[in-house]
Automatic annotation (TrEMBL):
Organism: Phenylobacterium kunshanense
Superkingdom of the organism of origin: Bacteria
Signal peptide: 1-21
Keyword annotations of the record: Signal
Pfam families, sorted: CHRD, PEP-CTERM
Name of this chain's protein: PEP-CTERM sorting domain-containing protein
Segments forming domain CHRD: 24-169
């Protein structure tokens, strides 16, 4: 009975909505030192990636500044052979992300893709992962969780990439922490009630 009470309390912890469980969040710091051939670019940036495997959406944000060259393209690449190192083919949309600021040395960008659409992906990445967009979605998630996917900004001066960063799991947002704490509180309350009932 105690196990059932605990299970119910933990289930209540997740009652905040299935989107929390299905949304994976990753972030990357972008700089020249992170490139496969490190460079001395003063450029830097940040990217955040949200992959929702229930809604089948991929939201990517990026901000960057102080690049030496004007931007020519930006992509997510993966998977590399090893976490946090090496190079990989483009996994996402080519020749560059739709709406990504090109011909500039600073900017920001925010776009949400439908992962069921072929246009979200590099066709080769689809073909290498089951031949479907959802196969590509699943493969990207694995690469992200293993630290083998990176965001790369290419420029005229550095065609192979001026700044990049490998994605890592983001620290939970304050709302997620609040949900977890509330869930632990419910579990503790349920156990206390059970202990009081057993001693009566």
């Amino acid at each position: 009975m105690r196990a059932l009470t605990l299970a119910l309390a933990l289930a209540a912890c997740g009652a905040g909505g299935p989107a929390v469980a299905a949304t994976y969040v990753f972030e990357a710091d972008l700089n020249g030192a992170n490139e496969a051939s490190p460079n001395a670019s003063p450029g830097f940036g940040y990217s955040r990636l949200y992959l929702d495997t229930d809604a089948h959406t991929l939201r990517i944000t990026a901000e960057f500044q102080d690049l030496i060259g004007n931007t020519t393209a930006a992509h997510v690449h993966g998977p590399t052979a090893a976490p946090g190192a090496g190079v990989a083919a483009v996994a996402t949309q080519t020749p560059s992300f739709v709406g990504f600021p090109l011909g500039v040395t600073a900017g920001n960008w925010d776009h949400t893709f439908d992962t069921t659409q072929t246009s979200t992906w590099n066709l080769t990445f689809i073909n290498n992962n089951g031949g479907t967009p959802l196969g590509a979605e699943a493969a990207l998630l694995v690469a992200l969780e293993q630290g083998r996917a990176y965001f790369n900004i290419h420029t005229e001066v550095f065609p192979g990439g001026e700044i990049r960063g490998f994605y890592a799991a983001a620290v939970p947002e304050p709302g997620v922490w609040a949900l977890l704490i509330a869930g632990f509180g419910l579990a503790g309350a349920a156990l206390r009630r059970r202990a009081v009932g057993a001693s009566a």
